[in-house]
Amino acid sequence: MSQESHSQLAIHPIEGVDPDELLKRRQIARRTKLLGVVILILLALGAARTIVSRVFHDRALAAGTEQLATQYVKTALAKTPDKAQMLALPGTLQGFVQSPISARAGGYLRRWYKDIGSHVEKGELLADIETPEIDQQLTQAVAARQQAASSLDLAKSSMVRWEALRKRDAVSQQELDERRSAAAQAQSNVAAADANVERLRQLSSFKHVIAPFAGVVTRRNVDVGDLIDPSSARPLFTLAQTDPLRVYVNVPQAYAQMVKPGQAVTVTQTELRGQKFDGKVARTSASIDTTTRTMQIEVALPNPQGVLMPGSYVQVSLPLKGSGAIVVPNNALLFRKEGAQVAVLDAQSRVHLKPVQLGRNFGETVEILGGVEANERLVLNPTDSLAEGDQVTPAPDAADAAPAAKPANQAAAS
């Protein structure tokens, strides 16, 4: 800038300073101010970003805290069951008739005819026993009987002759009475000999071991040549009747009044999946065992195909008539020092702890005799920290939470 331009602008140049140098200084100052403004703007933008970020973080933290503070609970309605309850109890199958077959005659086993698993009919031969001692005793008894019969014949003929002599008064009455007594004793000896012979014959018939009823041989404890001792506790065979079968079940006292003879039951076995067997309660003990507080019942179970085997472990399902009492899930109960309680939700989803009176336990559910009304909403799996008046949020049911499924053709079209 020249001196003329300065004079026109009424700017007096600094003496001793180059005008070009002055112009450069002014440009530098202007640029410095511009840079300062830009830095201030950037700092302002950074501060604003930090403030906005903190505000969003605070809001997110508040929302998360509020969400974590909300108690979500699963609920269920207290209901009165429409159908009968099923009581499942364990039992063991037994043959309708099950008996050990022992020997009555002593000796050696000559031969056996039926092994384990054999089906036999009543009166069928199971084994033969060789009894030499009994055979000898029978032969001796038969000979003794013949000897007694000969003595009887002699006594009778003597008595007849002495009666004839008495009529001619050749012998005394005392002598005749002695002959009559001898004949009576001989008659008694013959009867005793006959009884002994019959006893030994019946004992000898036990050398043939026969089946007393139709069934299945479940055990054989002897082999050919074994010494058979009638006084031994070991049986020769074990025979069981498999159609029908018996099942003995111990019913708890709480359900004893509901089980009656003739009631239909269902029997299942774990190994026979998908198969159910129908039976009936044949009889009950009509008394409670003071040790176990249970009543024993007997179930008659037909087994015409022989599918079920004696000794098997089974489950017996007894249908019980509904009592009209309210039934709730077991996991809705809360046990504290006040006793059994349930957590009931009101219309505002506030918790109210109510004491209840428990009835029968059905396994997954329990009967409530008092303290809860039907259709009240109960909290499932209540925590120990749950208290009276707590505000909770019921979790939506799976059916309500899931969106309604579209038909296949509509879904494809959309």
Question: What would you say this structure looks like, in words?
Answer:
This protein starts with a helix and ends with a helix. Strands 1, 17, 18, 19, 22 and 23 form a six-stranded mixed sheet that branches. The chain has a six-stranded antiparallel β-barrel with strand order 2-11-14-13-12-15. It is rod-shaped, with a radius of gyration of 53 Å. The longest helix has 51 residues, at 19-69. The chain is built from seven helices and 23 strands. It is α+β, with helices and mostly antiparallel strands. Helix 3 runs antiparallel to helix 4. Residues 398-414 have low confidence and may be disordered.
What is the element string, with H for helices and E for strands? HHEEEEEEHHEEEEEHEEEEEEEEEEEEHH
| Oligomeric state of shown chains | single chain
- Low-confidence stretches at least 5 residues in length (pLDDT < 50)? 398-414
Q: Could you give the distance between the termini?
A: 78 Å
Mean model confidence by pLDDT: 83
| Shape type | rod-shaped
Round the Cα radius of gyration to an integer and report it: 53 Å
- Count the DSSP helices: 7
* Proportion of residues in β-strands: 25-35%
Query: Could you tell me the number of beta strands?
Result: 23
Question: What structural category characterises the helix and strand content?
Answer: alpha+beta
Specify the helix fraction band: 25-40%
**How would a textbook summarize the main sheet?**
6 strands, mixed
Structure described in brief:
With 414 residues, the protein is an alpha+beta fold. The protein has seven helices and 23 strands.
